Structures are given as C-alpha cells and as structure tokens.
User: Fold this.
Amino acid sequence: MYSEIRSIMLIAAAVLLSACAAVGPNYRAPELKVPTEWQAPQAGKSADVNAWWSRFQDPALSTLLEAAQQENPTLLKAAAAIEKARASRSAAESGFLPSVTASAGTSWSGSLKNGTGTGVTTGATTGTSRSSTAGLDASWEVDLFGKSRRTVESAGALLQAREADWHDARVSLGAEVATTYVDYRGGRLKQKYYEEQADSQAKTAELTALAAKAGFTAPADARLAEASAASTRSTALAQQGECELLVKSLVALTGLPEASVRQTLGADIRALPVPDGLKVTALPADLLRQRPDIVSAERTLASTSALIGAAEAEKYPSFSLSGSVGLSAATGTSLLAPWSFGPTVSLPLFDGGKIAADIKGARADYAAARAGYQQVVRDAVKEVEQALVRLDSVARQEEEAKKSAAGYRAYVSATEANWRVGRASLLDLETARRSAIGAEVTLLDLQQSRLEYWIALYKAVGGGWKSTSGEATRMAQTVSPAPAGKEGELK
Assistant:
C-alpha cells in the first residue's frame, strides 16, 4: 500500500512540475536603430497604398495582375511551404498527447505425426491448439521542462514566417508584372518615335542626295545622311524586338496564352499610365510592420530562439507514464488479462557532449537569424530612401525635359512656317523635327523611369500588405521593438 501511495505522489508531483516555465530564453523582438524620419525628399500626393494598382486606371494592367495572381508557380510554391509548416506545427503539437497502440493476433500450434516404421512423415497433425492475444499500450511523456512547448513555439513562428513569405512573393510578382507592362508601353512609344525619326532622316537623305548630284554638297554628306537613316531604322527594329521579348515575359508571368496577352495589350500604341502619386507618410519604424519580408525574418528569428529552449531541455530529466493491458486465451485455458502501469524517469549522464553541442548550434542559428533580420531591415530602409531619392531626381529632370520638348515643338512650328513662305529649307525643317523627336524620347524615358520608381517604392514599403488572419496580426505586432534590453538580447 505504501509503495502505491508513493507512486501516486510521484505522478502528482510530475504533473505539477509540468506547469513550470519552459527552459531557455523567452523571446523578445530585438530593438533595431532606424531613423526617426525619412531623410530623402518626399514626392507626390498621399495615397492609399492598398489600392495602389487601381490608381493606374488601366484595365489591361489590372487584367494582367489578376491573371498573375491565379496560378503563378512562385505563389504555389510559397503556398506549399505554408502547408508544410502547418503540418510541422501539428506534428509538434502531438507531443503533448499520449501515444496509444493496439495489437491483436491469433496463432495455431501443434505437432506432425510420423508414419509407423517407414521414417516418412505422413503430414497428420496431433495436439492442435489455438491461442489469441490482444493488447493496448499507452505512453505519455510529461513536458516537465518545456521541450514540447518550445518546439511548438518554434513551429508556430515558422508557420507565420512562411505566411509572410507568400505575401512577399505576391507583392514582388505584382511589381514585376507592372514594371514589365510599363516597359512594354514605353517600348512601343519609343518604337513609334524611332520610326518617325527614321522617316525624317530618309527625307533628309533624299534631299542631300539631290544636292550632291547637283553639285551643291559633297557626296560624302549624302552617304552620311543615308547611314544615319539606316542606323535609326535599325534602332526602331531593335526596339520592336525588345517589345516582343516583353510580351513573352508577360506570358510567363501571367500564365495566359500569348494570344490572350496580345489581345489584352491591344494592337494600338497607347500612352503610359499616369497613376496618382504615392507619398510615404509612415515613419521608418512603421515600415517594420508593413513589409512581409521583415515579418518573415523576425518570425524566423523567434523560431530559432525557441529551438534553444528545446535543446536545453535535453539536459534535464524526462518523466513519462506508460501502461499496458492485454488479453490472452489458449485452447483449454482460462482467459488472462495481465496489465502494467508506472512512471519512468530518465536522466542523461554521459552523451559525449552532444547536448552541449546542440545547444551551441541552436544559439549560433539564432545569432545568424538575428544578423539576417538586421540586414533585411537595413535593406528595407535603404530601398525606400533610394526610391524616394530617385523619384525626386527624376521628377525634377522631367520638368526640365518638358520645357525642352515644348521648346523644340515650338521651334518645329516656327521652322515649318518659315519653310512654307520660303524662308527655310526642307532640310532645316527635317533637322528641327528630329530634334523635337529626340526631346520627346528623352521625356518618355524619364516618364517611364518615374513609373518604375513608383513601382519600386510600392514594393519597398511592403505593397500595402496588411494582416487579415489572427496569426498574421500577431506577426505585425511582434515586429515592434522591445521596450528594454540590448539588441537581440536573450532573456
């Protein structure tokens, strides 16, 4: 009786101990030093980042973006990673529950009877009996020092990281589709300008050839004019080839048939989309709660921190309860039902330094993840600052380019008026027209660059990604800097 009471007390003590705090560091997001405000100049109007693509007011772009989000291999791969992480978390949670196995079996036994005097076995049997068994085994390891809790904590954080990776892939995909689309629209416009410039140079070559034939100019000038026209035609053809390559890229990004992509783009040459401006009004620290790649890096850091505790738990005793009950019966015997139940305690005494090495490795993984998190944050701030600088620079260049293009257009109009009254030659008019076309191409390059920088800024601020699920909301909250402690300190 005394031994049974002692066993019950041991079991109760073990259950109470299982409520103790898990060993290992309690994770807190590291406090990172970031600027209190953006240093680069701001440009554009305030806009809601979440609905940014709709501000392009371009149905073709909206169609391509929607198609790209459907069956893109990158997104499918990221979704599969989420499912794998979810399965890993479920597997880790199973450590809290007991394991139960059942078994059953039946066997027959007997002996073969030999033939008389012949030494040959006849195959007859004698003394046949049957025995049946059934059993149930159960075991439960009590989570005394939090190994299972830390493992579940790590798996849960890793699941949140994979969810953020999916959002990051979605943002990157949208930015890539939009950039390719803008390049295509700009390329078609440049092709048009180059073709117009080639036509103008062809006319100049004709006039120069006539002048050379009449002896008013050197034959070399006529050759030079022909060469310039051929060079510009070559540039136009090269630009046409680049546009074809961009169509192939859109096919690969969206998964649509090429005929559908071409139908969406249209055969006509369209102007570049003109979206509303985007102004970054959030503070740099708020960026940490908006970029999914930063959330992923922080959640990965939390996962590695929890694995330190799981490794340290191996240093301490483990306590498990196990029991079994079985049924057995044989021919001619009564039914038996043996059972057993009892606690088991194991303590690692010597392992050749494996546990210490595992703990050291887990801490090294945490240090690497912390450095990776710091780098991602620094890169994020750099990308926003650089995008703002580029936007400001190209905006100021665009203003000057607009003045230049307007001036050249006015000069063409004046030259054409003089040509009509005989005050300017056709050669002067074509030269003025080519200068105007060159100014228009320069302005187009700046407008295209500005759109691409807007897209880069959209991506740099996280693409307007916001959490919708409870886990994703927790991801955003845990990125906030810790109220105290050194950077990346483990408590």
